[in-house]
Design a protein that fits this description.
With 144 residues, this protein is of the alpha/beta class. It has one domain: Rossmann fold (3-Layer(aba) Sandwich), CATH 3.40.50.2300. Helix content is 33%, strand content 28%. The protein is built from 5 helices and 7 strands; from the N terminus they run E-H-E-H-E-H-E-H-E-H-E-E. It has a 7-stranded mixed β-sheet with strand order 2-1-3-4-5-6-7, with helices on both faces. Strand 5, helix 5 and strand 6 form a beta-alpha-beta unit. The radius of gyration is 13 Å and the shape is globular. The termini are close together.
């Protein structure tokens, strides 16, 4: 079972993601965060988790990725703007997804992140409803 940290400054979105994933046996929510400082705190004690976080919550993306890498976590960044997706993928994220993406797209993106293997994996850029998805190569982090 893959552990998940859900970090979003919009409570309704955060609670919706928690509700969606709570019904899925593949994933276990181990922490929630509504702000930057608490995200860094829960990240430090949840080795190997997938982190779902909003771009608006992250004060320093490079710092988050660096800390996540230290504890073998991978970051899925939720964005508001589809035009920003390619720019974010070049920053060392495991993936990006639009806030408007469907629940099925979120689950499939998490599965693809979870399936990353040592060496090379794919960074999945998931578009919103009715848009194409694309992928870019990325450095893989070890599974824990």
């Amino acid at each position: 079972m893959q552990t998940i940290i859900v970090a979003d400054d919009q409570e309704m979105y955060r609670m919706g993601v928690v509700e969606l994933l709570s019904g899925n046996e593949e994933f276990q929510i181990v922490a929630q965060s509504s702000d930057w400082k608490s995200l860094l705190a829960v990240l430090a004690v949840n080795k190997g988790a997938l982190i779902i976080t909003s771009a608006t919550l992250v004060a320093d993306l490079r710092r988050l990725i660096a800390r996540a890498t230290l504890v073998y976590c991978r970051v899925l960044l939720v964005t508001e703007d589809s035009d920003a997706l390619p720019a974010y993928t070049s920053r060392g994220l495991a993936g990006t997804i639009q806030r408007s993406a469907s629940p099925d797209t979120l689950i499939e993106t998490l599965r693809r992140m979870q399936a990353g293997t040592a060496g090379r994996c794919r960074t999945w850029v998931s578009a919103g409803r009715g848009q194409r998805s694309s992928s870019h190569a990325s450095r893989a982090l070890p599974n824990s």
